[in-house]
Amino acid sequence: MSKNELKNKYTSLIKTEAKRLGFLSCGISQAGFLEEEAPRLENWLQNGMHGQMQYMENHFDKRLDPTKLVDGAKSVVSLLLNYYPENKQKSDAYKISKYAYGKDYHFVIKDKLKSLMSFIQEEIGEVHGRAFVDSAPVLDKAWAAKSGLGWIGKHSNLLTQQVGSFYFIAELILDLELDYDNPTTDHCGTCTACIDACPTDAIVQPYVVDGSKCISYFTIELKDAIPTEFKDKMDNWMFGCDICQDVCPWNRFSKPHQEPLFQPHPELLHMSKGDWEEITEEVFRELFRKSAVKRTKYEGLKRNIQFLK
């Protein structure tokens, strides 16, 4: 087989297996320095838009160059996993971002990535690489866009015409040459739905989000008290926020996920504001045993609820 035929074969094998493992889609781009993202990231950090997320300042060079994360890296395999739920919380309750309804996605996706990596090594041979699920210095959205899986919308989330934006992004960085996909075009047009709907004005200009003004930041990342100026602007979100995604016209194409591990605890969807206000540590532990909500801890969730009352 020629080198090109092999690349073609390996690419096809990987994409077919990714689909079998339940990934929504798989795109591949050439590993290298992200030239366009470098000045954007630098400006964003210099303007303090990361708030107290100090970790965003670390590993600046690694964030922009996957060859610094994996020796001899040649390909970035980007993967999307749908998390859009079939059923949602009661409309008058305190709200949790839909991505956190079920089991913590880090565990779910890591297992799938391990399976994909094992498959690659079994089928192709000695391939070295690393799996990443938003817990390392990798610019997930930039790589997904580069590999044609969608475009980065005005709310700074990855968007896809067929399925909107309610999905997780993960990647394998491999020292294997593959066929590379081309970026897609931007389809936001003149729409400003996300900018108009953000209650804290966190989308300071199209494609730029001030993380330090975002409801997700206040309810998850911020360890201090939530600034009082945002008192009536939180729209009942107690963990994360989906407003910019909920109003996006492309999300009318979202379809419910097929991942059993993302199913919410049966009681979660039926809890009222009163139930949340009276939540005990025991109930918190039971509801969120393996959930991403554990990040905010019981005290953090209580603080958020108190702020919303």
Automatic annotation (TrEMBL):
TRNA binds at K223. Binds 2 [4Fe-4S] clusters per monomer. Its cofactor is [4Fe-4S] cluster; cob(II)alamin. Its EC number is 1.17.99.6. [4Fe-4S] cluster 2 binds at C198, C214, C241, C244. Residues 176-208 form the 4Fe-4S ferredoxin-type domain. The active site is at D134 (proton donor). Pathway: tRNA modification; tRNA-queuosine biosynthesis. One of its GO terms (molecular function) is epoxyqueuosine reductase activity. Catalyzes the conversion of epoxyqueuosine (oQ) to queuosine (Q), which is a hypermodified base found in the wobble positions of tRNA(Asp), tRNA(Asn), tRNA(His) and tRNA(Tyr). This is Epoxyqueuosine reductase. It comes from Flagellimonas spongiicola. The gene is queG.
